[in-house]
Design goal:
2 copies of one chain form a homodimer.
Chain A: H1 3-23, H2 53-64, H3 86-98, H4 109-125, E1 139-143, H5 146-162, H6 165-168, E2 178-183, H7 188-196, E3 204-207, H8 217-229, E4 233-240, H9 252-262, E5 265-269, E6 294-297, H10 299-302, E7 310-314, H11 317-324, H12 334-338, H13 357-392, E8 396-398, E9 406-411, H14 415-427, E10 434-438, E11 441-447, H15 455-469
Parallel strand pairs in A: 2-3, 2-4, 4-5, 5-6
Antiparallel strand pairs in A: 1-7, 6-7, 8-9, 9-11, 10-11
Helix pairs in contact in A: 3-13, 4-13, 5-7, 5-11, 8-9, 13-15, 14-15
Chain lengths: 470, 470
């Protein structure tokens, strides 16, 4: 496809997306496809000869769209928001067009230097403190997801606790069993990472939570002490600033004290709700994070950046690099040898990397800090109003504290009725909801974070939920 | 940014990329930036208020472009090709616009079902055999890179050898030391993965190579026997179909026999050169791969798909899923519970995932199988001609066999002179070259794979190299 054909078809694709986004609200939010529907409309083999571009555009409508669940709908209230804002889509397009590889500074200096600067911007925006800035001994990097970030952090912490032996000689060379800690409400990626890095999922202790579903510091301390008494080496605590199920906030300052006492790496997973810290009035959610060893937030959730863009900061970049660096001869170069530059391939699992910093650059400049704050405040206000309505409704009850943009609730008649309400609401096509289990209770999660969502959408959703709950 | 603004700015970005691609050939291939140049032209803090989109577009030219190394230049001959073809850029744009999350089948069925079908298409294109097709017990998945694919494969193999104990109870619970094998010419990602999964980098044996830089089967067998005698558990051999340094092909059929004898997982890393297998006449490079346990190829290298898109196939998908699956309550859904669908989050490290199958769909349909074959054949022919010229040049010598699209050579005066030639050529701005060490020798790598590269570009490069070598 030569540049002029690219120009022509590119305009068509931009128009197709603009049209899609202008009418996404009118589509049933959840795909109505059954297993196999989409596969059965795709040929069994690739075509021998090239087809006109128009064929693919036509098939987008007929083959692909029936299998699409509309995460960009303003009526999207389930899981988490996965925002594709205009400036982010276009920055990602620039990245695809340039097609550079950012594995080393030398393979495209702008890709590395802009990323370092954008992560410093983000650290300032969220009030993460100086330890995570590139100007000191720390620094930030863009990962694909908080799951991958967790693997990297756990490896660095594992190696700090074993003097690098776990990476060089293997976990089995360590004389003591390594143990890590997170709450029973933490994201599944922490347990998955424990399996990946070879410490074993069973050696991740799931610490009890209090009534607000936040980790109990006393329970953590007891677990650590018991493990030490049993001859284990506790090496990491993963705290959550906003759990997936209910948005619960672990008490970082208390956990920090415990981690200091026992010399344990404190990781903070703020993937979903960390964005709220851009507003002074919500910064309490992560008080103490400035003294943690690592911190993750996903701009690809609530901060208008399209997937993937997960930010990870570490206070000691040397720990991360020591664990993940390998320098084969074919990647050696003057800039790396001189030690004057960052090579981000040493901060992540993959070698190759896209120019993802462009998305942060475009989004932060297009909306400005105040624009992002305004969106966050609006979403929180909408959910706070909805929570009041739920609280006042005799048939419904709030299932957890609701400090930000996620409210969990259930029907007084119990789990079956609550599930029925969710399924009926989802089947209506008018919105999307997801669920969680809190305590033993099945609860509906209602999360506002799609940037197209207006008060009218939440009001319509409430009207439906109220009638289904009557 | 509302849909109409998106349309307007989107057309501008498309035009910017079309213009860039039409004149990329005229730019110096390697960025001339010094460390800190790009960072110093970026403000220290994010803007308080939003800026006009025009600002970002203007800064692309003045701030970003000086730090760009032009991987899309037809004069790109270093490392590996990282092709951003038109249909791939546009498919990725559609993916950004739809902004769906493919973590579960239910979160967007088209994302999952198209991926399964595209990986079946790719398996047919490359002649991988039925074991890797989704219709049997195997199947394919798109990973970001072959590095991440290696981690996933090594975890699955580790768990197969330990009955799942390594993931559940940790590597240290295994009574025997786990050992893995790859050649001394294998990609660094295999050693990196060995560190990540907790087996230890030291327990990856780097097997000797023969004169063609391919793994010696006898040396592999000896190493395995020695480890077994020492009480270790050999669990994985990673073979390379086309090494990074010189494109050497490990003898898969011999390795397969050894792996069968000792019940060891055979992984095939064909990241760069596997694409050649789309042509019957090059399929010899991977004879035997049809009986391996896993296989990786990166369409984001030589197959016109922009980064990231690495295809991984396994013969036993259950092994992969057992090692990587975690089902928290908040992700449970009817389709998953019924077992009728694939949830690709169980085939990879991250939870979230982009709709990357669209890129394969657009590229395979736009070019067709014959279009891709024609490109591969042209690139191979260009390099074969260049190799003949190098061979006929008294001052230069070929450093390794050159069966495909990569030729390695050196100057007869030795390493210093060879390095000087590479540095002078790169400094000219007219092309990009990279290097490797083969044996003890510093060699220049010349790789043709950028789809814009024509014979005239290779001829001009040869003219320059010849004069620098005189």
């Amino acid at each position: 496809m030569d540049p002029e054909d690219f120009r022509r078809y590119g305009h068509q694709v931009i128009d197709w997306i603009a049209d899609y986004l202008s009418e996404v609200e009118s589509r049933p939010v959840l795909s109505q496809a059954s297993p196999g529907d989409i596969a059965s409309s795709l040929p069994a083999s690739p075509p021998a000869h090239g087809e006109p571009f128009e064929n693919m555009m036509a098939d987008l409508e007929t083959v692909v769209m029936p299998g699409i669940t509309h995460w960009q709908s303003p009526n999207w209230f389930s899981y988490f928001p996965s925002n594709s804002s205009g400036p982010s889509i276009l920055a990602d397009l620039v990245s695809s067009g340039l097609g550079v590889q950012g594995m080393l500074w030398s393979t495209s200096p702008a890709c590395t230097e802009m990323e370092t600067r954008m992560l410093d911007w983000m650290a300032e925006l969220l009030g993460l403190g100086d330890r995570f800035r590139s100007t000191g001994s720390g620094g930030g990097v863009i990962q694909d997801t908080a799951s991958s970030a967790a693997v990297c952090v756990m490896i660095a912490a594992r190696d700090r606790a074993t003097g690098g032996q776990a990476t060089r000689k293997g976990v089995s060379s360590c004389s003591q069993q390594l143990t890590a800690y997170t709450s029973s409400q933490a994201h599944s990626s922490i347990e998955k990472a424990a399996g990946i890095i070879g410490m074993g999922r069973d050696s991740l202790r799931l610490i009890d939570v209090d009534d607000s579903f936040a980790m109990k510091p006393d329970a953590l301390r007891e677990a650590i002490k018991a493990d030490i008494a049993a001859g284990c080496t506790p090496f990491l605590v993963s705290a959550t600033t906003g759990t997936t199920a209910s948005g619960a906030m672990d008490p970082l300052e208390d956990l920090l004290e415990i981690c200091r006492e026992f010399n344990i790496w404190l990781h903070v997973d703020a993937a979903m709700f960390g964005t709220a810290a851009c507003c002074e009035e919500f910064r309490w959610i992560q008080a103490g994070c400035q003294e943690a060893d690592s911190y993750t937030v996903n701009p690809h959730k609530w901060m208008l950046v399209n997937f993937d863009c997960s930010c990870l900061w570490v206070a000691d970049r040397g720990a991360l690099i020591n664990s993940l660096s390998i320098l084969p001869d074919y990647l050696r170069n003057q800039a790396t040898d001189a030690g004057h530059v960052i090579d981000y391939r040493d901060w992540q699992i993959p070698l190759g990397r896209r120019f993802r910093a462009l998305k942060l650059w475009f989004v932060l400049r297009h909306y400005g800090v105040e624009g992002i704050r305004a969106m966050v405040r609006e979403h929180v206000a909408m959910v706070q109003e909805l929570a009041s309505l739920i609280e006042a409704e005799p048939n419904l009850q709030l299932a957890a504290p609701c400090p930000l943009s996620l409210v969990c609730f259930s029907h007084v008649d119990g789990d079956e009725r609550t599930r029925q309400i969710m399924e009926q609401a989802n089947a209506s096509g008018n919105l999307s909801l997801s669920h969680a289990t809190l305590g033993d209770r099945f609860v509906i999660r209602f999360c506002v974070g799609q940037w197209r969502t207006q008060r009218s959408h939440v009001e319509a959703a409430w009207k439906l939920l109220k009638s289904l709950s009557a």
